[in-house]
Design a protein that fits this description.
This protein is an all-alpha fold. Helix content is 63%, strand content 0%. The chain is built from 3 helices and no strands. The chain is flat and about 115 Å long.
């Protein structure tokens, strides 16, 4: 029985060795072909040209992106400056007393017509009497349910 296994093992090793030799030869042929392609001056020139073209396109794209970013930053700066100026102007108007009647806006310009008052008695949400006082809490209820996880520390 042991001789049969030894024979099969030797045949397997022999087949594997032959496959490795063939694979090695194929790799050697492919490596030689690739080396010839790399050494070919025409192919080298083509690769150099494509790299040069790629470098030029990358430089142009980065320049364009930098310009667009600069424009965006300027717009943001302008918007922020405008917002601060409006805020300062509004603050100055609020603080300054109006000395002349011309400074106050006309009633039609100040605000649109006021909305009519709601009818009392009809509400959408909770009833008016159901509102709780601010800060009040409902009465504490004692829970008897048991928890599965860790116990809460007693207060």
């Amino acid at each position: 029985m042991a001789e049969k296994w030894e024979k099969q093992l030797k045949e397997f090793i022999k087949r594997t060795g032959e496959e490795l030799k063939r694979t090695g030869e194929e790799l050697k042929v492919e490596a030689q072909r690739l080396m010839e392609e790399v050494r070919d001056p025409a192919r080298q020139a083509k690769v150099k040209e494509s790299l040069k073209d790629l470098r030029e396109k990358a430089a142009a794209m980065s320049k364009d992106a930098a310009e667009k970013l600069e424009i965006a930053v300027r717009k943001v700066e302008g918007a922020v400056d405008t917002a601060f100026e409006r805020d300062k102007a509004a603050e100055a108007v609020r603080k300054a007393p109006s000395e002349t009647p011309a400074a106050a806006p006309a009633p039609s310009e100040a605000a649109p017509a006021a909305k009519p008052a709601r009818k009392a008695g009809k509400t959408i949400g909770k009833k008016a009497g159901a509102k709780k006082a601010a800060g009040s809490k409902p009465a504490a209820t004692k829970k008897t349910a048991k928890s599965i996880g860790r116990k809460k520390p007693s207060a």
